[in-house]
Amino acid sequence: MVGERRLSIFGVVNALILACVAVATLYPVWYIAVTSFSDTASVVQGKVLLFPKGFNFDAYAEVLKNKLIPRAYLNSVYYTSLGTFINLLFTAVAAYPLSQRTFFGRRFFMLAIVLTMFLNPGIIPTYLVVQKLGLTDSVWSLVLPNAIWTMELIILKSFYENMSTQIREAALIDGASETRILFSIVIPLSKPALASIGLFYFMGHWNSFFLPLIYLNDKDMYPLQVVLRDMLIFNTENDAGLVDRAALAPQALKNATIVLSMIPVLLIYPFAQKYFAKGVMLGSEKG
Amino acid sequence: MLRHIRRDRELLLLFIPCILFYVIFRYGPLYGLIIAFKDYSVFTGVLGSDWVGLKHFIKFFGNQDFWMLFRNTLLLGFYTLVFGFPFPILLAVLLNEVRVQWFKKSVQTLSYLPAFLSVVIICSMIIDFLSPTNGLLNQLLAALGFEKKYFLADSGWFRPIYVISEIWGTIGYESIIYLAAIAGISPTLYEAARVDGATRFHMIRHITIPGLMPTMLIMFILKTGSMIRVGYEKVLLLYNPMTYNVADVFSTYVYRKGLLESNYSYAAAVGMFEALVAMVMLLGANAVSRKIGGKGLW
Fold it and tell me: Is A26 exposed, middle or buried (0-12, 13-18, 19+ CB in 10 A)?
């Protein structure tokens, strides 16, 4: 039968197009990794395309010797772990009262929260609040102003709402407090949802560069992304676009830093698959 | 009411951090927006600064930068929407036609790899790829006998670079939504078509695409509503004075005027104008959605 023939022209063309898509997304990352292991001369001459030429770890040795990068890496790890933890704690706790149908002022609170998705005051007023609270130049300027993402809060609230109420009622009758129920029953039962929103929080912190750029002035506090950005666009404000930016920082050093910065992301990437797709879907349904 | 509060006191206690967060970091800045109508300085504070009415707005609208920013923001958003919109749909449709599961899964997994990369890394890739001295594209051009070109310093190239890299970055994860929508199409439709002798093209044309229509419509309206929210982080990393005339958007202007030059009140006024335009567009998109689809987005 025609429908069961395995190899059709359509199938082959389709597979070719899709293979191109896969290559287009993978190759830039691959190229960065390959150049980070190659010697500079070969990279500059354009001899490095698929595999490293003059394989070496020089760039990585230089990264370790660099004054800023190892410190920035530790900073990023610190900001991301603390930030993601605070995000998940705040969101998990805030979603619980909202998920209770009879919670006092539930409709009002939900309206006030959802409204913030449409009322965006912009960078400046938020910056002034953070400055006023004395949070600039501290890790809290990166953690507190975005402690809860409204979309993730709504997602988790819906997840709680779909949980069976029987366990909670039984626990209440047994005299358990709400706090106890939240931390020993609701949160442990929500692990898949928490993993999904936690992934987005994690990526948000690890990849963030704009907030640290405006809130941190001390170079020793810079996270990796800001250091990378500085390697990328040294003094753009005064280069007037006449200097080739790619030539500013040694490409191998920069690419080695990028590879190191991608390690945590690539480590969770395989595990993130199902949570990522789920998160995108949940977000789009609620949006 | 008091009894209600007393009954829920423990839940309310748990809810305090959430209330504090929204009051301080979401509604606080909204209140702080009044500096757009004042001459704010760090020394006098929000309350102590003098009222100046619409001075900053008038200055902004009278500024020659105004129309440039307006045009740049809208055009970047518009091109990204129009050119970027079909690609995730196309990818989802093509992926759906793949019968070999491991291949389908691998391509899909790789296609949303860019969503995991930071904007700094993506811009670093763009800058290296387009570098006039040793970028891959220019080496290719040179090998083919063309002249090398510094694309990022050419204002004619900024928008294409922005839009193409945006498509590259979002095609994978946006296709997830369409793939899910395709999965929701009843398989009996395909079976019936196959019995009637339909080819794959017929099925794509008459079953898959119509089945995707509602999702496409919603996505298109959503994207129109948020069109003006241009990815300013990327612009900030890619633009330079040579390309300001096409690349500078409201948010980057706010960043430069407000945070680099400390014109807080003026920048707040610009930010407020941008937020108002964004809100009008979102409400408009919702009204259109209500009219066409019978229901709004919220």
Answer: middle
Smallest Cα distance from B283 to chain A, Å: 10
- Residues in chain B with CB shorter than 8 Å from the CB of A121 are 29-30, 32-33, 271-272, 275
Burial grade of B62 (CB within 10 A; 0-12, 13-18, 19 or more): exposed
Residue of A nearest to B234 (CA): A210
- Give the closest-approach CA distance of B21 to chain A in angstroms: 7
ipTM: 0.87
User: Which ranges in chain A are annotated with CATH 1.10.3720.10?
Assistant: 60-286
To the nearest whole Å, the CA of A181 is away from the closest chain B CA by 11
Q: What are the domain boundaries of chain B?
A: 41-293
- Domain B41-293 in CATH: superfamily? MetI-like (1.10.3720.10)
Question: Looking up tokens 């900024």, which residue turns up?
Answer: B158
Q: Does B84 touch chain A (CB under 8 A)?
A: no
Q: Which of B226, B275, B230, B276 is nearest to B252 (CA)?
A: B230
* DSSP secondary structure of B204-252: IIIIIHHHHHHHHHHHHHHHHHTTT---HHHHHHH--TTTHHHH--HHH
- CA proximity to B222, closest of B162, B272, B283: B283
Mean pLDDT along residues B134-158: 86
Contacts 24+ apart (CB under 8 A), A162-168: A163/A189, A163/A190
How many Å is the maximal CA-CA distance in chain B?
83
- Which B positions 175-234 lie with beta carbon below 8 A of chain A? 176-177, 180, 194, 200-201, 222, 233
Element (H, E) at A42: helix A40-44
- CATH code for the part of the protein at A60-286: 1.10.3720.10
Of A47, A120, A91, A249, residue with least CA distance to B14? A91
More confident residue, B137 or A76: A76
Cβ atoms of B156 and B274 closer than 8 Å: no
d(CA B64, CA B66): 5
Which residues have C-beta within 8 Å of that of residue A112, sequence separation ≥ 6?
B22, B27
Pick from B7, B31, B121 the residue to mutate for testing the A interface (most A CBs within 10 Å).
B121
CB < 8 Å to B125, chain A: 28, 32
Q: What are the beta bridge partners of residue B38?
A: B51
Is pLDDT above 90 for B42?
no
A90/chain B closest Cα distance in angstroms: 7
* Interval A112-137: pLDDT, tens: 999 998 888 888 999 999 999 999 99
How far apart, in whole angstroms, are the C-alpha atoms of residue B48 and residue B101?
66
Whole-structure pTM value: 0.89
Provide the chain B residues 61-80 that lie in CB contact (below 8 A) with chain A: none
A207–B267: do the CB atoms touch at under 8 Å?
no
B107 touches chain A (CB under 8 A): yes
Quickly state the pLDDT bin for A236 (edges 50, 70, 90). very low
Tell whether the torsion through CA atoms of B273, B279, B282 and B287 is positive or negative.
negative
